[in-house]
């Protein structure tokens, strides 16, 4: 949005500085146009610097989760071993 505002200021300033042949007694419209063009260019430069700094940041995402390290295996026991019932 700042880049769009800067372009708008440059366009209005260029119209005032170069396209108008009107004159106002108290205001120099050519100088107002140059000031608006400078403000627009400065706004564009500042917005590009700020967006460049925003792009170089790093973000860390922390996720919490439960990890069960105990593994349960269902292995049949040998006949006659503990935990088995004798067969008839």
From TrEMBL:
<feature type="transmembrane region" description="Helical">
    <location>
        <begin position="31"/>
        <end position="50"/>
    </location>
</feature>
<protein>
    <recommendedName>
        <fullName>DUF6458 domain-containing protein</fullName>
    </recommendedName>
</protein>
<dbReference type="InterPro" id="IPR045597">
    <property type="entry name" value="DUF6458"/>
</dbReference>
<feature type="domain" description="DUF6458">
    <location>
        <begin position="1"/>
        <end position="63"/>
    </location>
</feature>
<dbReference type="Pfam" id="PF20059">
    <property type="entry name" value="DUF6458"/>
</dbReference>
<feature type="compositionally biased region" description="Basic and acidic residues">
    <location>
        <begin position="66"/>
        <end position="78"/>
    </location>
</feature>
<keyword id="KW-0472">Membrane</keyword>
<keyword id="KW-0812">Transmembrane</keyword>
<feature type="region of interest" description="Disordered">
    <location>
        <begin position="64"/>
        <end position="88"/>
    </location>
</feature>
<keyword id="KW-1133">Transmembrane helix</keyword>
């Amino acid at each position: 949005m700042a880049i769009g505002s800067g372009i708008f200021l440059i366009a209005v300033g260029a119209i005032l500085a170069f396209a108008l042949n009107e004159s106002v007694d108290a205001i120099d419209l050519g100088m107002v146009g140059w000031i608006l063009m400078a403000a627009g260019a400065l706004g564009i430069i500042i917005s590009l610097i700020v967006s460049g700094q925003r792009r170089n940041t790093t973000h860390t995402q922390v996720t919490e989760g439960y990890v069960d390290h105990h593994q349960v295996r269902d292995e049949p026991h040998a006949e006659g071993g503990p935990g088995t019932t004798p067969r008839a």
